[in-house]
């Protein structure tokens, strides 16, 4: 079964093609409203439950948990996106690529590795 990584945000609907399923490995990125050249990154983590429900399911739980963590630890407000992948290596590679892209000399941004991992629903 082929799985593709994708960036997902709060207002996007999630649709799967026949034969596709959600992957188990993730990372999240939080971009503060006050500074678009700064991003907080979670660790790559998983596997997680594979559930999408009308009440938000896995994606919403992960997004909200990371946003709450960043707000509490760093006193930031902003936008959280999470990406999902078929395996941990793919998640780690994309996380590294996005950190490098943000901090390269052209973008001159700053990334903060938070060490956060989703622990599941409370």
Overview of this structure, please?
The chain has 122 residues and is an alpha+beta fold. It has one domain. The protein has two helices and five strands; from the N terminus they run βββαβαβ. The radius of gyration is 14 Å and the shape is globular. The protein starts with 5 loop residues before the first strand and ends in a 9-residue tail after the last strand. 22% of the residues are buried. The model is unreliable at 1-21 (pLDDT under 50).
Largest sheet: 5 strands, mixed
Silhouette = globular
Number of domains: 1
Number of helices: 2
Number of strands: 5
N-to-C order of helices and strands: EEEHEHE
Structural class: alpha+beta
How far apart are the termini? 31 Å
What percentage of amino acids are in beta strands?
Answer: 15-25%
- Cα-atom Rg, whole angstroms? 14 Å
Strand order of the largest sheet: 1-4-2-3-5
Parts with pLDDT < 50 across at least 5 consecutive residues? 1-21
Helix % is 25-40%
Mean pLDDT, to the nearest integer, reads 80
Short structural summary:
The chain is α+β, with helices and mostly antiparallel strands. It has 2 helices and 5 strands; from the N terminus they run βββαβαβ.
Write the layout of secondary structure elements.
Blueprint: E1 6-8, E2 25-32, E3 38-41, H1 57-74, E4 78-85, H2 88-103, E5 110-113
Parallel strand pairs: 3-5
Antiparallel strand pairs: 1-4, 2-3, 2-4
Keyword list:
122 residues; single chain; disordered N terminus; 28% helix; globular; alpha+beta; five-stranded mixed sheet
């Amino acid at each position: 079964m082929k799985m593709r990584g994708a960036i997902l945000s709060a207002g996007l609907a999630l649709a799967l093609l026949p034969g596709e399923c959600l992957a188990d490995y993730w990372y999240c990125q939080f971009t503060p409203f006050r500074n678009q050249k700064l991003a907080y990154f979670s660790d790559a983590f998983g596997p997680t439950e594979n559930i999408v429900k009308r009440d938000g399911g896995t994606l919403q739980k992960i997004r909200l948990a990371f946003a709450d963590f960043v707000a509490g630890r760093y006193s930031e407000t902003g936008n959280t996106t999470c990406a999902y992948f078929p395996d941990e290596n793919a998640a780690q590679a994309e996380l590294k690529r996005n950190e490098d892209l943000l901090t390269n000399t052209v973008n001159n941004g700053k990334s903060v590795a938070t060490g956060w991992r989703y622990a599941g629903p409370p």
